[in-house]
Amino acid sequence: MTSGLWPRWALAAALLAVAPVCAGCAETEPAPQTSLAQSPAPSLPTDARELEELLVDEVPSGLPRVPDDDLDPPAGEKTVDDVAGYGEDAQQQEEVLGEYGYLRGWERFWRDGPRITSVFIDQFADPAGAATYAEDLARNDAEYYGGTLDHAPAGLPEDCVLMAMPEAVPEHGLEGPPAFAWCTRGAFTVAVASVQPTAEEARTELSAVVAEQLAQLPDN
User: Which of 16, 130, 184, 198 is the most exposed place for a label (fewest CB within 10 A)?
Assistant: First the structure.
């Protein structure tokens, strides 16, 4: 299926690139490396707040969280209408999301200057919808940024697609080399992105966040 979905991370990253760093965040000390050991996976969320509880709270780089309301449109809870509104034709986007079986989503960002990490989780009615959505989103983002997709990336689970770019993409507001991953786990799609001073740092951050986030999700 060709979705025509607008690259959601592209929109938010562009807004982050011009937004001031949140007050008191710039001097934040790096957080300790987060542990990948997790408690038993919970049951499937039935509302947005239950989905929020599944998101990682910190990232290994120690970047400070960006308050959801500091973005326009805000991060945080996402409905079908919210996601459809990212595109130029909201009605067409909503129809596509309905075909995917889209239920709910949540977005979270961390930032310090040009360094950005983001996690987007979306929940679908079944795994097939999640897989199709991840595939289409990865393809659309690759076209938007001009990157190349790796469907068997080393160091990431087999249900992940990677796009790692060696240089900054300033025309899209990315002041360092970005790395993107789109993964599925059961009825969930996880999209993680990181912009760091070097491509190696971006890939390291991305891989750690992907592993921890997938570990926190139910697999049914």
Answer: 198
